[in-house]
Amino acid sequence: MSFLYIFAATPMEGQPVRKIGVVDTAGSALRCGPNNLVLMIGGMGPTSAKQKAERALNGGSSTNNGHKPDAVLVIGLCGGLSRSLSERRIVAYTECLSTEAARPPLTCSQTITESVVALLTSSNIRCDRVVGITSARFAITPREKLELAKSGAAVVDMESYSILDAARSVGIPAAVIRVVSDNVDFELPDFNRALNNVGVFDDRKALKVALGSPIRTLKLLSANRRAMQNLAKALESILMAECFS
């Protein structure tokens, strides 16, 4: 039996875990097959993710009597940086880069990653091993995405590096499983206008951006829903198996 912390940026990205899991008798954790889970909703962007992960992994959670988790799993959406990765594709990070200068690549747990990929393959769910990159800003245009691809990354997100770094600092193995919601040619609404001066996402500003780009917003919401359906199927297989021991 493994005890896991699962990090998602938003309630929508964490919803598949809630649907799969059964609340334990104490009401503080979820049980999925052989795994006990705690779902952490950390907020969008590296700053919010770092704060949540550091609090949780350095004794800020009372769940499981203060015991640290056996492993950390980061889940959610990501943007594709390569035309070989279509929307709804499940990806497992082998390592994660940062757009911050001089930050070294962080390697994900090879044991967990290979176990997850093998499990999904046996369940007829395609999962590509990729290098990811975490950015403090949204990659809005194809040009911006292709520029990020020069780093060697195949997908981009806004939280994984911060969480992996927090897990590494306390010696907890970590893995990242995400789903591509927008491919390299998909142009997003300019949600960078909803970030404040420290990179925290402002929901009220985001609503204004969404209302100002209704067609792009509707396309993005539809793409997110389709992608999350695929991620939910993958997570059902992963969390009901012994991938983390």
Note down, in words, how this protein is organized.
- The chain has a single domain (2-239), classed as 3-Layer(aba) Sandwich (Rossmann fold).
- 38% of the residues lie in helices and 24% in strands.
- It has a 5-stranded mixed barrel with strand order 5-9-8-6-10, surrounded by 4 helices.
- A hairpin with a 7-residue loop joins strand 6 (90-98) and strand 7 (106-107).
- The protein is α/β, with parallel strands linked by helices.
- The protein is built from 7 helices and 10 strands.
- Helix 1 runs parallel beside helix 7 and helix 2 (46-60) runs parallel beside helix 5.
Summarize the structure.
The chain is α/β, with parallel strands linked by helices and 245 residues long. It is built from seven helices and ten strands.
Assembly status: single chain
Instruction: Calculate Rg over CA atoms.
Output: 17 Å
Number of strands: 10
Overall pLDDT score = 91
**Count of separate DSSP helical elements:** 7
Spatial order of strands in the largest sheet:
5-9-8-6-10
* Derived structural class: alpha/beta
CATH topology: Rossmann fold
Listing every helix as H and every strand as E from the N terminus to the C terminus, the arrangement reads EHEEEHEEEHEHEHEHH
Number of domains: 1
Strand content: 15-25%
Could you give me the name of the CATH homologous superfamily?
Nucleoside phosphorylase domain
The main β sheet shows up as: 5 strands, mixed, barrel
Name the helicity range: 25-40%
Report the CATH architecture.
3-Layer(aba) Sandwich
N- to C-terminal distance? 7 Å
* Uncertain residue ranges: none
What gross morphology would you assign?
A: globular
| CATH first level | Alpha Beta
